Amino acid sequence: MNDVLTVMMTGIVSVLVVTLLLHHVLRFTRLQASVISGLLSIAVLVPYLIMNWTGGDVAALYFSCNILTSYAYYLVGKKTNALKGKDGKRTHWVPITVFGFFVVLTILDGAFVFMAESGLRVQYVDQDGGVKSVNTRFPGEVPNAYHKKEAYFNAHKAKMREQAERGWKVRYQFEHNPPRMNEENIMSFLVVDREGVPIEHAEVSINLKRLAEQELNRIVPFTEVGQGIYEAPMTFERLGRWDFEVHIKKGDEVYQDVNDNLIEVIPPAKKTT
Protein backbone atom coordinates (compact mmCIF):
# COMPACT_ATOMS: atom_id res chain seq x y z
CA MET A 1 0.00 0.00 0.00
CA ASN A 2 2.92 2.36 0.65
CA ASP A 3 4.05 1.98 -2.98
CA VAL A 4 0.57 2.89 -4.22
CA LEU A 5 0.48 6.02 -2.06
CA THR A 6 3.97 7.02 -3.18
CA VAL A 7 3.14 6.73 -6.88
CA MET A 8 -0.20 8.47 -6.40
CA MET A 9 1.27 11.44 -4.51
CA THR A 10 4.19 11.68 -6.94
CA GLY A 11 1.72 11.86 -9.82
CA ILE A 12 -0.40 14.56 -8.17
CA VAL A 13 2.60 16.74 -7.33
CA SER A 14 4.16 16.23 -10.78
CA VAL A 15 0.95 17.16 -12.60
CA LEU A 16 0.54 20.26 -10.46
CA VAL A 17 4.13 21.38 -11.03
CA VAL A 18 3.94 20.80 -14.80
CA THR A 19 0.64 22.67 -15.01
CA LEU A 20 2.07 25.63 -13.10
CA LEU A 21 5.11 25.74 -15.38
CA LEU A 22 3.00 25.58 -18.52
CA HIS A 23 0.63 28.28 -17.32
CA HIS A 24 2.94 30.75 -15.59
CA VAL A 25 6.29 30.20 -17.32
CA LEU A 26 5.38 29.14 -20.85
CA ARG A 27 2.25 31.34 -20.84
CA PHE A 28 -0.26 28.71 -21.92
CA THR A 29 -3.85 29.41 -20.99
CA ARG A 30 -5.25 27.68 -17.94
CA LEU A 31 -7.26 25.29 -20.11
CA GLN A 32 -4.31 24.48 -22.37
CA ALA A 33 -1.97 23.90 -19.43
CA SER A 34 -4.47 21.57 -17.74
CA VAL A 35 -5.11 19.54 -20.90
CA ILE A 36 -1.41 19.20 -21.73
CA SER A 37 -0.44 18.17 -18.19
CA GLY A 38 -3.26 15.62 -18.10
CA LEU A 39 -2.16 14.09 -21.41
CA LEU A 40 1.48 14.04 -20.31
CA SER A 41 0.53 12.20 -17.13
CA ILE A 42 -1.27 9.56 -19.19
CA ALA A 43 1.75 9.23 -21.48
CA VAL A 44 3.97 8.61 -18.44
CA LEU A 45 1.57 6.28 -16.62
CA VAL A 46 0.89 3.91 -19.52
CA PRO A 47 4.48 2.58 -19.88
CA TYR A 48 4.92 2.59 -16.10
CA LEU A 49 1.81 0.44 -15.64
CA ILE A 50 2.89 -1.90 -18.43
CA MET A 51 6.14 -2.58 -16.58
CA ASN A 52 4.64 -2.52 -13.06
CA TRP A 53 1.08 -3.82 -13.39
CA THR A 54 -0.68 -4.20 -10.05
CA GLY A 55 -4.32 -4.30 -11.12
CA GLY A 56 -6.98 -2.30 -12.91
CA ASP A 57 -8.25 -0.68 -9.72
CA VAL A 58 -4.81 0.72 -8.92
CA ALA A 59 -4.38 1.94 -12.50
CA ALA A 60 -7.76 3.68 -12.34
CA LEU A 61 -6.70 5.34 -9.08
CA TYR A 62 -3.51 6.70 -10.66
CA PHE A 63 -5.29 8.05 -13.75
CA SER A 64 -8.11 9.58 -11.70
CA CYS A 65 -5.78 11.42 -9.31
CA ASN A 66 -3.67 12.89 -12.11
CA ILE A 67 -6.58 13.98 -14.29
CA LEU A 68 -8.50 15.38 -11.33
CA THR A 69 -5.46 17.44 -10.37
CA SER A 70 -5.22 19.03 -13.81
CA TYR A 71 -8.99 19.55 -13.94
CA ALA A 72 -9.02 21.14 -10.48
CA TYR A 73 -6.33 23.59 -11.58
CA TYR A 74 -8.53 24.61 -14.48
CA LEU A 75 -11.59 25.07 -12.27
CA VAL A 76 -9.95 26.91 -9.41
CA GLY A 77 -7.00 29.28 -9.84
CA LYS A 78 -5.37 32.06 -7.91
CA LYS A 79 -5.76 34.90 -10.37
CA THR A 80 -8.86 33.83 -12.24
CA ASN A 81 -11.55 31.72 -10.68
CA ALA A 82 -12.86 29.46 -13.43
CA LEU A 83 -15.93 28.77 -11.32
CA LYS A 84 -17.16 32.27 -12.22
CA GLY A 85 -17.90 33.77 -15.58
CA LYS A 86 -16.89 37.20 -16.86
CA ASP A 87 -20.07 38.69 -15.42
CA GLY A 88 -19.14 37.49 -11.94
CA LYS A 89 -21.86 34.85 -11.82
CA ARG A 90 -21.07 31.29 -10.91
CA THR A 91 -20.52 28.95 -13.80
CA HIS A 92 -22.85 26.11 -14.76
CA TRP A 93 -23.25 23.33 -12.21
CA VAL A 94 -22.26 20.56 -14.64
CA PRO A 95 -18.42 20.97 -14.42
CA ILE A 96 -18.58 21.11 -10.64
CA THR A 97 -20.84 18.04 -10.53
CA VAL A 98 -18.54 16.08 -12.84
CA PHE A 99 -15.54 17.02 -10.71
CA GLY A 100 -17.31 16.08 -7.49
CA PHE A 101 -18.45 12.75 -8.93
CA PHE A 102 -14.92 11.74 -9.86
CA VAL A 103 -13.57 12.91 -6.50
CA VAL A 104 -16.03 10.61 -4.72
CA LEU A 105 -15.25 7.80 -7.16
CA THR A 106 -11.52 8.21 -6.55
CA ILE A 107 -11.99 8.16 -2.78
CA LEU A 108 -14.05 4.96 -2.98
CA ASP A 109 -11.54 3.35 -5.33
CA GLY A 110 -8.74 4.28 -2.95
CA ALA A 111 -10.66 2.75 -0.04
CA PHE A 112 -11.15 -0.51 -1.94
CA VAL A 113 -7.48 -0.60 -2.93
CA PHE A 114 -6.50 -0.06 0.70
CA MET A 115 -8.78 -2.89 1.87
CA ALA A 116 -7.43 -5.20 -0.85
CA GLU A 117 -3.79 -4.38 -0.09
CA SER A 118 -3.86 -4.15 3.71
CA GLY A 119 -7.16 -5.74 4.73
CA LEU A 120 -9.40 -4.82 7.62
CA ARG A 121 -8.24 -5.77 11.08
CA VAL A 122 -10.94 -6.92 13.49
CA GLN A 123 -10.35 -7.60 17.16
CA TYR A 124 -12.38 -9.97 19.30
CA VAL A 125 -12.25 -11.46 22.77
CA ASP A 126 -11.72 -15.22 22.92
CA GLN A 127 -13.08 -17.64 25.50
CA ASP A 128 -10.12 -17.08 27.80
CA GLY A 129 -10.63 -13.32 27.82
CA GLY A 130 -7.66 -12.57 25.58
CA VAL A 131 -7.89 -10.07 22.75
CA LYS A 132 -7.30 -11.59 19.32
CA SER A 133 -7.16 -9.95 15.92
CA VAL A 134 -8.11 -11.16 12.45
CA ASN A 135 -7.00 -9.58 9.18
CA THR A 136 -9.16 -9.86 6.06
CA ARG A 137 -6.33 -9.25 3.60
CA PHE A 138 -6.45 -11.57 0.58
CA PRO A 139 -3.04 -12.21 -1.01
CA GLY A 140 -4.48 -12.87 -4.43
CA GLU A 141 -3.61 -16.54 -4.57
CA VAL A 142 -5.81 -18.66 -6.81
CA PRO A 143 -5.08 -22.31 -5.98
CA ASN A 144 -4.95 -24.94 -8.72
CA ALA A 145 -5.27 -22.40 -11.57
CA TYR A 146 -3.46 -24.66 -14.02
CA HIS A 147 -5.67 -23.62 -16.93
CA LYS A 148 -3.81 -20.30 -17.13
CA LYS A 149 -0.83 -21.93 -18.81
CA GLU A 150 -1.58 -24.64 -21.33
CA ALA A 151 1.89 -26.20 -21.23
CA TYR A 152 1.88 -26.36 -17.44
CA PHE A 153 -1.63 -27.78 -17.48
CA ASN A 154 -0.68 -30.55 -19.93
CA ALA A 155 2.41 -31.47 -17.91
CA HIS A 156 0.36 -31.55 -14.74
CA LYS A 157 -2.28 -33.81 -16.32
CA ALA A 158 0.43 -36.20 -17.53
CA LYS A 159 1.87 -36.44 -14.01
CA MET A 160 -1.59 -37.02 -12.58
CA ARG A 161 -2.15 -39.92 -15.02
CA GLU A 162 1.16 -41.49 -13.98
CA GLN A 163 0.23 -41.02 -10.34
CA ALA A 164 -3.16 -42.66 -10.84
CA GLU A 165 -1.56 -45.63 -12.61
CA ARG A 166 0.96 -45.98 -9.76
CA GLY A 167 -1.92 -46.37 -7.32
CA TRP A 168 -0.39 -44.94 -4.16
CA LYS A 169 -2.88 -44.43 -1.34
CA VAL A 170 -2.43 -41.69 1.24
CA ARG A 171 -4.45 -41.12 4.38
CA TYR A 172 -3.92 -38.58 7.13
CA GLN A 173 -5.22 -37.98 10.63
CA PHE A 174 -4.56 -35.95 13.76
CA GLU A 175 -3.79 -37.43 17.14
CA HIS A 176 -6.66 -35.34 18.49
CA ASN A 177 -9.26 -34.53 15.87
CA PRO A 178 -10.13 -31.80 15.15
CA PRO A 179 -6.89 -29.94 15.91
CA ARG A 180 -6.90 -27.02 18.34
CA MET A 181 -5.49 -23.54 17.96
CA ASN A 182 -2.18 -22.68 19.69
CA GLU A 183 -1.66 -26.29 20.79
CA GLU A 184 0.74 -28.91 19.49
CA ASN A 185 -1.19 -31.20 17.15
CA ILE A 186 0.46 -34.37 15.83
CA MET A 187 -0.47 -34.95 12.20
CA SER A 188 0.35 -38.33 10.64
CA PHE A 189 0.25 -39.78 7.13
CA LEU A 190 -0.04 -43.41 6.11
CA VAL A 191 1.42 -44.03 2.65
CA VAL A 192 0.91 -47.41 0.93
CA ASP A 193 1.12 -48.69 -2.63
CA ARG A 194 -1.59 -50.30 -4.76
CA GLU A 195 -1.32 -53.61 -2.87
CA GLY A 196 -1.35 -51.93 0.54
CA VAL A 197 2.38 -52.36 1.16
CA PRO A 198 3.79 -49.47 3.23
CA ILE A 199 6.04 -47.08 1.32
CA GLU A 200 9.09 -46.38 3.43
CA HIS A 201 12.05 -43.99 3.19
CA ALA A 202 10.05 -41.37 1.31
CA GLU A 203 10.17 -37.59 1.62
CA VAL A 204 6.80 -36.34 2.88
CA SER A 205 5.80 -32.71 3.34
CA ILE A 206 2.74 -30.52 3.15
CA ASN A 207 2.38 -26.96 1.93
CA LEU A 208 0.19 -25.39 4.61
CA LYS A 209 -1.80 -22.35 3.47
CA ARG A 210 -3.90 -19.69 5.10
CA LEU A 211 -5.40 -17.89 2.11
CA ALA A 212 -6.40 -14.79 4.07
CA GLU A 213 -2.96 -14.41 5.70
CA GLN A 214 -0.16 -15.35 3.35
CA GLU A 215 2.52 -14.69 5.95
CA LEU A 216 1.34 -17.82 7.83
CA ASN A 217 1.94 -20.09 4.82
CA ARG A 218 4.72 -22.61 5.33
CA ILE A 219 6.09 -26.00 4.32
CA VAL A 220 5.93 -28.67 7.02
CA PRO A 221 8.30 -31.68 6.65
CA PHE A 222 7.30 -35.03 8.13
CA THR A 223 9.48 -37.60 9.87
CA GLU A 224 9.20 -41.32 9.19
CA VAL A 225 8.27 -43.43 12.22
CA GLY A 226 8.00 -46.78 10.42
CA GLN A 227 5.53 -48.97 8.51
CA GLY A 228 4.76 -46.21 6.02
CA ILE A 229 3.73 -43.75 8.74
CA TYR A 230 5.08 -40.19 8.80
CA GLU A 231 4.43 -37.66 11.56
CA ALA A 232 4.97 -33.97 12.30
CA PRO A 233 3.93 -31.66 15.16
CA MET A 234 1.87 -28.71 13.99
CA THR A 235 0.66 -25.53 15.66
CA PHE A 236 -2.14 -23.44 14.17
CA GLU A 237 -2.18 -19.72 14.99
CA ARG A 238 -5.71 -19.09 13.73
CA LEU A 239 -9.13 -20.65 14.03
CA GLY A 240 -11.09 -21.98 11.10
CA ARG A 241 -10.05 -23.17 7.68
CA TRP A 242 -6.52 -24.07 6.64
CA ASP A 243 -5.68 -25.57 3.23
CA PHE A 244 -2.79 -27.87 2.49
CA GLU A 245 -1.13 -29.68 -0.40
CA VAL A 246 0.53 -33.07 -0.01
CA HIS A 247 3.93 -33.78 -1.60
CA ILE A 248 5.55 -37.21 -1.39
CA LYS A 249 8.69 -38.28 -3.21
CA LYS A 250 10.58 -41.56 -3.29
CA GLY A 251 13.36 -41.70 -5.81
CA ASP A 252 11.91 -40.60 -9.14
CA GLU A 253 8.34 -41.36 -8.09
CA VAL A 254 6.28 -38.40 -6.97
CA TYR A 255 2.85 -38.15 -5.39
CA GLN A 256 1.03 -34.82 -5.23
CA ASP A 257 -2.39 -33.93 -3.93
CA VAL A 258 -3.23 -30.28 -4.55
CA ASN A 259 -7.00 -30.64 -4.32
CA ASP A 260 -9.17 -29.04 -1.65
CA ASN A 261 -7.58 -30.58 1.44
CA LEU A 262 -9.01 -28.75 4.42
CA ILE A 263 -8.25 -28.58 8.12
CA GLU A 264 -10.80 -27.03 10.46
CA VAL A 265 -9.12 -25.70 13.59
CA ILE A 266 -11.20 -25.28 16.74
CA PRO A 267 -10.55 -23.11 19.84
CA PRO A 268 -8.09 -24.37 22.45
CA ALA A 269 -9.35 -26.47 25.32
CA LYS A 270 -10.63 -24.56 28.32
CA LYS A 271 -8.23 -24.37 31.21
CA THR A 272 -9.45 -26.06 34.35
CA THR A 273 -8.76 -24.50 37.72
Which blocks of ≥5 consecutive residues have pLDDT under 50? none
> In terms of quaternary structure, what is this?
single chain
Tally of individual helices = 5
**Percent of residues in beta strands?**
25-35%
Structural class comes to alpha+beta
Helix amount: 25-40%
Average of the residue pLDDT scores: 82
Tell me the number of structural domains. 2
Biggest sheet character? 4 strands, antiparallel
Radius of gyration: 29 Å
Topology, number of strands: 10
Order of helices and strands: HHHHEEHEEEEEEEE
Strand order of the largest sheet: 3-4-8-7
Protein name: Nitrogen fixation protein FixH
Keywords: Membrane, Transmembrane, Transmembrane helix
Pfam families: FixH (PF05751)
Organism: Wohlfahrtiimonas chitiniclastica SH04
